[in-house]
Description:
Layout (H helix, E strand, L loop, with lengths): L5 E5 H5 L10 H18 E2 L2 E2 L3 E6 L12 E5 L4 H11 L5 E4 L3 H9 L3 E3 L7
Parallel strand pairs: 1-4, 1-6, 4-5, 6-7
Antiparallel strand pairs: 2-3
Amino acid sequence: MDAPPLVIVDAANVVGSVPDGWWRDRRGAAERVRDRLVPYAAEGLPGFPGPLELVLVVEGSARDVASVPGVRVDAAPGSGDDRIVELVAEHPDRARLVVTADRELRRRVAELGAEVTGPRTVRP
Length: 124
């Protein structure tokens, strides 16, 4: 059986895409994004039908955010962008989608064959 598509979400970028006071509670903001991702694990995203393997990459003060059923949280030991590139590179034979608006990160993962979409795909 083929592995489900891998969707990697840049937590810092998605959290920062809406100025809703996230800077007062970065951990809580990352948890809210994580919780909003859960339905996508089964339902899928445009161009990526479910089920999906969803990975939320966190960094900094959000590193202690826990995984929940449907969303694995990966705490980057350093740069979240570098960890996202590593995850994309680790799975060359799978469909991969990275959710970020970061231009440099988009370029890096596209060079590895991943597709990219912006934060609005997972955040209203």
